[in-house]
Amino acid sequence: MIDNFSKIIFGELADVFKEILNFSIVDFADVFLVALLLYSSYKLLRGTVAINIFIGIILIYFTWRITDFLNMKLLSIIIDGFMSVGIIALIVVFQPEIRKFLLMIGSANISKKGSFIEKFNFIKNQENVATDINSIVNASQNMSESKTGALIIIERNNSLNFLLETGDQMNISVTQSIIESIFFKNSPLHDGAVIIANNTIKATRVVLPINNDKQIPNRFGLRHKAAVGITEKTDALAIVVSEETGHISYIKNGEFVSYDNQNTLSDLIKGDLN
Question: What is the CATH number of domain 133-273?
Answer without folding.
Answer: 3.40.1700.10
